[in-house]
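fold-stage: in
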Amino acid sequence: MSLYDIEVKSIRGDSVKMSEYRGDVMLIVNTASKCGFAPQYKDLQRLHETYASRGLRVLGFPSNQFAHQEPDDEAAIEQHCQINHGVTFPLHAKIDVKGPGAHPLYRLLTSEARGFLGTKAIKWNFTKFLVDRNGRVVKRFAPTVTPDKIEPYIAKLL
């Protein structure tokens, strides 16, 4: 299965085929509004504003799997992200990013880009995956790696 074969839901419940992003560079992030890393939303938004015209798609995927730091429903998540962080990049419906119920998108991402010491599992919120214009996962970044540190990798792919 290719990344482009996967379907996800938008934050408002609409079906979105990942093939809609064919030809774009994607930065895919599992997010949580109540996480200590939530200030990264603003930096992700800055990347979106700076590079969207060149083909970058920042895609947020809320998950409540880490210390229940995303307990709200999608409407509340969207509102929180817009009001507190100015987010306009695409957010999606809450998903599982690890374990037996992991969404197919995250099963694919973690199998193609391993984490620290070769682990597949997502360890925390704001793990980031950089995907090239051909749908190939090229790099995985730990939650502690801020978006500004990823910017040179993005610029190279654009």
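fold-stage: in (second)
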Amino acid sequence: MTTLLYTADGAADDDLAEALRGCARGERAGLQRLYDRLAPKMTGVALRMLRRRDLADEVVHDTFLRIWEKADSFDAARGKPTSWAFAILRNTALNVLRGEGRMDLVADYEAIEPASEEADAETLVMALSEASALRRCLDRLEPARRRAILLAYMRGLTHGELAGRLGVPLGTAKAWIRRSLLTLRECMT
């Protein structure tokens, strides 16, 4: 049934738009149709964003609550029902990633990370030869930004995981990575 999400004829979109209109009228059957059609794909998207099943399930649940509450604001002239619903999912997941007091996003990684990432990040820099251009360029970065780059590229942490680990907002973690990469690129050329 999920293949209907991508039909060219728009029948699936019409069905979903009708389900949203049903939700706006308070019809639970409309919500059930939306859930049956969208929940599996939404769970997959949420899992890719959050990397934890329990949080993904929570975000999908919250997304359907918001869809139910805001169904009357859907306007088919402005976009497809799937785009509207997945925008709600994305925003809900991003709120969880940014969320105040939601540092538990990275709790699963504590057991596999070194006792001190600060020492580990410095050990990684020290492992580079003294003459290494990369080491010289990394040494020019502020310690917090150097740590963010090393955790992202040596440990594979996502922006959300970095934000949680470093205790900074998601936008700050993204900006640190972007600016640090630009600084490194300039330094290496």
